[in-house]
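stuck on this fold:
=====
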Amino acid sequence: MDEAGCIARLLEWHDADRKIGPLKQLQGLIWAEGYANRAYTGHVYDDAAAGLWRWHGAGLSLHVYSSGSVAAQKLLFGWSDHGDLTPLFTGHFDTAIGGKREERAYHAIAATLGLPPHDILFLSDTPEELAAARGAGLSVILLARDGQPVTDAYPVATSFDDILPLDIDA
């Protein structure tokens, strides 16, 4: 494929919001340059940053599972608008472990962590991801922001202030 064809394919994937490796790797390279030049910071909601600090302080092991590459995750949290949040995280997962809408990815995460799935709390704003995680046995919460529609299929939180992981039942 020539350069124009590659660009057209990347734009097609971007417009379709495809969560695939090559696009996410390119995103990570663009982010690295932007963060290094201080052109922008990684957006993290105020309550999310406070909640992450609170949970980390309580001794919880925090992991990120994102469709963004691990490198991109570290950039976003390392250059967040709340400073460097990377010390809060024990580990990171991306789609190399599997798609976020695939149960097998959550089984693989639980196996990698060496935890029973019901001991893992997964937060997402995407019902299809929650369905896959729940199907693998994880505890789940729908994180509804900015007027996002909610469903009674999942416990719902509108803020990290509403989530007390130590009190979650399997």
